[in-house]
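Appendix B, example 12.
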Amino acid sequence: FEQVVAIVLSAVIAVIVVTSLVQLIREVFMLLVLDAFNPLDHKMFQTVFGMIMTVLIAMEFKHSIVRVVMGQDSIVQVKTVVLIALIALSRKFVILDPETSPAKVAALSGAALALGIVYWLMRERDQRALDAERAAAAAQGDRHAP
């Protein structure tokens, strides 16, 4: 059941990624043709890079689902969800209005810091578990040596 749901979700997200990419290319092309593309213009920067970050978020989400389909993970991992949340917050910083209140910037920064710490802690936990597995496998191999 999980595999079927993951395959359907993967297909839906693939359609969303392709559609978003086509719209991004069309938007940038139109801006170039109209000679309106000025990357130093803050609004233009926000629009284009916001769209790029949106495509990246969708691709990361699809990648996490594909890992389930391929059998590398049995469910979408919490670490992946935290990573996607970090990317989404990064996108928010890119498209943030210059007139945004300092309190909102501080709140977003606190959320990014908290998610970064959680991601780092989870990565460290996974690395320690992998090191312990390798050490156990090496010890097992030494016991069977003649």
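Residues 49 and 94 are 7 Å apart (CA to CA). The helical segments are 2-33, 42-69, 78-94, 102-143.
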